[in-house]
């Protein structure tokens, strides 16, 4: 039984990693193309619609996915009965929410800074009905470690922009191209997942089962709402105080940076959580695993953040095109603060969950929201750029909150956490200084690329001066070399 589980785990990890790499590499390419075909205003409209849909989607799912994955059922029949209750609840709630959005579409459009776009919001929200068909299926696939099927679904999904969205954008359909593409993606997900699944929706409902699921899932829903507020509060304020052009500039820029950062973090977080969970009662090795992961991630995230900050104009031209020139400052400051946030803040939630204390993550989000919302409201009164810089740097307050929780609730020293990444921090700052002087020599794009290569070599040279990091670099080099030789 244990060998079977291990085999499933290894196979699932393989397909999960392949999926993450494929989607993270393809998505930026499609965004690069769409950014050259669609205006920032159109992206702004789509961003506010996405904000509404993701908020409503939390209530349709209500944490049922996690319940179906984690709960131990006595037999297949019980599992399918719970799946039916979850499905019909999701579907019923999604219909109610879609009707509410449709009835109050113009009021909602005005409140999010999209006056006159009520019909667009109502049509785009049809996705709510479609996701109710796929969310339960996805949970069951994850439960069975069937990430191969999920890989197929994701691959079809990433092809949709090339087959639907981009052609429609070329025809001049603007934001409708993205909306139709998203709806098509959800339809394909629902069809493939349902067709290949052992479980199919049938007429069965049990209120007792619903109560049991809600008692388990309610905390997940509350935490999801707090994370949503942290993620979207700034977009809502920009939409209310400014216009769709600035929402497009802001959200597209931050999404781009997040996508680049996730190339490093996406495959690490699940593995870290799994490892910490198994070491939760071994305090010494628990800390060792956390610090080892944090130091390894800082080795790549810090220089990436500093590099995007120093070469934000080049990144904007390459990734988005010339008409997005105002996005460069957003990309720069968001990349720099994201590097700090990832290294000192993002992994803490995995520590809380591994210790069986998920409420700590919720507390951290609430303490951050108490500061975040007023800062965004006040700074928006002084213009877009005041809000951008205030929103980016206020994330350091969340880092301080995590430091306090990690210190008093988990027993992690803040000073030790900072000292752990000093080598990569010093090397990244040194690289940033070099980048500044290299940029003074020429403004040609070719020179920018040459200077980036010089900065990368300089960064690893400085990093290798630290004995602890030299060993890590040599280990990474040996691993890469052995893989290359094996493939040859």
Summarize the structure.
The chain has 488 residues and is mostly helical. The chain has helices at 2-37, 40-61, 64-70, 76-103, 105-111, 118-124, 127-143, 147-170, 175-196, 207-241, 244-265, 268-278, 283-310, 312-319, 327-346, 348-354, 359-380, 384-393, 395-410, 414-419, 422-439, 445-463, 467-487. It is globular and about 70 Å long.
Can you walk through the features of this model?
By secondary structure, the protein is mostly helical. It is built from 23 helices and no strands. It has helices spanning 2-37, 40-61, 64-70, 76-103, 105-111, 118-124, 127-143, 147-170, 175-196, 207-241, 244-265, 268-278, 283-310, 312-319, 327-346, 348-354, 359-380, 384-393, 395-410, 414-419, 422-439, 445-463, 467-487. α4 (76-103) packs parallel to α10 and α13 (283-310) packs parallel to α21. The chain is globular. The model is unreliable at 483-488 (pLDDT under 50).
């Amino acid at each position: 039984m244990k060998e079977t589980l291990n085999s499933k785990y290894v196979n699932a990890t393989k397909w999960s990693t392949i999926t993450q790499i494929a989607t993270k590499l393809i998505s930026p390419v499609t965004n690069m193309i769409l950014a050259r075909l669609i205006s920032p205003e159109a992206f702004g409209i789509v961003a506010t619609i996405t904000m509404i849909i993701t908020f409503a989607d939390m209530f349709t799912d209500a944490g049922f996915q996690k319940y179906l994955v984690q709960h131990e059922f006595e037999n297949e029949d019980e599992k399918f009965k719970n799946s039916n209750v979850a499905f019909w609840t999701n579907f019923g709630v999604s219909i109610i929410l879609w009707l509410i959005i449709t009835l109050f579409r113009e009021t909602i459009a005005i409140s999010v800074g999209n006056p006159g776009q009520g019909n667009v919001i109502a049509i785009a929200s049809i996705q709510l009905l479609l996701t109710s068909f796929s969310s339960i299926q996805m949970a069951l696939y994850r439960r069975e470690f069937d990430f191969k099927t999920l890989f197929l679904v994701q691959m079809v999904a990433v092809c949709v922009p090339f087959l639907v969205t981009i052609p429609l954008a070329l025809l001049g359909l603007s934001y409708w191209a993205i909306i139709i593409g998203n709806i098509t993606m959800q339809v394909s997900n629902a069809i493939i997942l349902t067709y290949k699944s052992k479980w199919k929706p049938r007429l069965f409902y049990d209120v007792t089962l619903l109560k049991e699921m809600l008692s388990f899932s309610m905390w997940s829903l509350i935490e999801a709402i707090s994370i949503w507020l942290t993620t979207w509060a700034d977009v809502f304020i920009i939409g209310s105080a400014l216009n769709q052009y600035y929402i497009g500039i802001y959200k597209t820029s931050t999404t781009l940076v997040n996508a680049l950062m996730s190339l490093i973090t996406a495959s690490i977080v699940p593995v870290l959580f799994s490892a910490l969970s198994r070491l939760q009662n071994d305090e010494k090795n628990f800390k060792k695993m956390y610090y080892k992961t944090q130091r390894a991630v800082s080795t790549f995230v810090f220089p990436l953040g500093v590099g995007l900050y120093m070469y934000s104009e080049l990144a904007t031209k390459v990734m988005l095109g010339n008409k997005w020139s105002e996005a460069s400052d957003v990309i720069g400051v968001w990349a720099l603060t994201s590097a700090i946030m990832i290294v000192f803040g993002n992994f803490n939630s995995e520590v809380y969950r591994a210790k069986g204390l998920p409420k700590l993550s919720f507390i951290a989000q609430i303490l951050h929201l108490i500061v975040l919302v007023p800062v965004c409201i006040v700074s928006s009164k002084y213009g877009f750029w005041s809000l951008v810089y205030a929103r980016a740097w206020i994330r350091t307050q969340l880092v301080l909150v995590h430091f306090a929780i990690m210190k008093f609730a988990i027993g992690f020293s803040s000073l030790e956490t900072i000292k752990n990444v000093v080598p990569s921090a010093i090397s990244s700052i040194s690289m940033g200084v070099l980048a500044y002087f290299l940029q003074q020599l020429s403004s040609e794009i070719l020179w920018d690329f040459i200077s980036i290569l010089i900065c990368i070599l300089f960064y690893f040279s400085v990093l290798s001066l630290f004995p602890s990091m030299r060993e890590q670099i040599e280990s990474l080099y040996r691993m890469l070399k052995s893989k290359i030789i094996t493939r040859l």
